[in-house]
Amino acid sequence: xxxxxxxxxxxxxxxxxxxxxxxxxxxxxxxxxxxxxxxxxxxxxxxxxxxxxxxxxxxxxxxxxxxxxxxxxxxxxxxxxxxxxxxxxxxxxxxxxxxxxxxxxxxxxxxxxxxxxxxxxxxxxxxxxxxxxxxxxxxxxxxxxxxxxxxxxxxxxxxxxxxxxxxxxxxxxxxxxxxxxxxxxxxxxxxxxxxxxxxxxxxxxxxxxxxxxxxxxxxxxxxxxxxxxxxxxxxxxxxxxxxxxxxxxxxxxxxxxxxxxxxxxxxxxxxxxxxxxxxxxxxxxxxxxxxxxxxxxxxxxxxxxxxxxxxxxxxxxxxxxxxxxxxxxxxxxxxxxxxxxxxxxxxxxxxxxxxxxxxxxxxxxxxxxxxxxxxxxxxxxxxxxxxxxxxxxxxxxxxxxxxxxxxxxxxxxxxxxxxxxxxxxxxxxxxxxxxxxxxxxxxxxxxxxxxxxxxxxxxxxxxxxxxxxxxxxxxxxxxxxxxxxxxxxxxxxxxx
Length: 496
Ligand SMILES: [Zn+2]
Description:
Among the domains are: 2-28 and 361-487, Neutral Protease Domain 2 (Neutral Protease, domain 2, Orthogonal Bundle); 62-254, tricorn interacting facor f3 domain (Immunoglobulin-like, Sandwich). Helices cover 24% and strands 28% of the residues. It has ten helices and 24 strands. The strands form six sheets. The chain has an eight-stranded mixed beta sheet, with no helix packed on it. Helix 3 (291-302) crosses helix 4 (344-354), helix 7 packs across helix 8 and helix 7 packs antiparallel against helix 10 (479-487). It is globular, with a radius of gyration of 22 Å. The two termini are 28 Å apart. The structure holds zinc ion. Zinc ion (ZN) binds at residues 1-2, 325, 348, 352, 370-371, 374.
């Protein structure tokens, strides 16, 4: 994710080389849990039946065990596939959906939770109606019989509501002619029920039905669309086979021009909103249009592009304020291009396809593996394409931020939930990677990045596992350096 702030960044960087500043931001999600300042709401607790107690079945946990966001995700099962089928009306913002989840039980389940903010009307487990209660974003499902450990279960949920008006802080964005489901760390509960945590990745099939003439974009391959769905409706069908974290699934609904072509890295599909001002539209095209070229440069640095599809989306949504690394197809706020072409943000979101999307965090505290890496990719890209070197950029940042600046108080490898997307995670995080590079040398450093991307492809990782790999690859002890740059508050020694 990149955040575009209108205000002067909290960390004002005197930029002496021609680089765009990773700005400060204030997207915060204060405190752990879905409601700011409050612990996550405990789900309603249906009493297990005598039969369930006898079977030794126990409830799945209401959270997956993330210390930063205890209410996110759920325990007791592992999702393999989502089939999401939604109908959306831009005029009313009403979304009606049916999602079918294929999951494997990891314990004997008397009941389990899904994360869904929109009201559910019916739930079936393996074809049989299941009792359900809902509170906040927790949907508690009690199947008629316990699900044994190891069993594959099929869960079907019917639901409907007005996403932009659901919950106290809905991340759903309405636009002039449609809507966007684009956010980090949570967006799925506003359009499909899920195990909403990057530790549980699954393949996705998304079908969106919208009024005739409206485009509906999502991740992966466009299987069909627009195809007539009757009653003045069109249907768009998308499929993403590679496992995906739920927050990376998106929909963009509105008036879009689709640009499609084959590239050496897979099928390209980019959607540009038709409502953009001509100058802005041109700047967006000059930036996002470089996607294949940028993927080529990044492939040279990080190894093979991890997906079969690539592209991007530029919606007509000046209020979006962010760019997000949606898998195979990042979504870019047009605000990034108001000053003309801006390639850094495209490099950033495309680098996330390796670091964040293919290799996802195991816990949200591992966010450095996403944002530190994507930010450093911007600097590497600069270095590789005739711009300032990473060393120059690191030096400029370092020298412009005084030792007593609060910037240095946030350790990138454990920033805290409220600082998940703090500038330090990005900029200090990228400087930390540079420090590792200088310590181990280019050969071991880039071998480490490529091995990380290859070994963890379509999986997950932790900061500790990355550091262990860097040590194995380089034969160097990195504890002191990692401690200074990643784990402790305070300004480390200058690199180079
Ligand atoms: Zn990012």
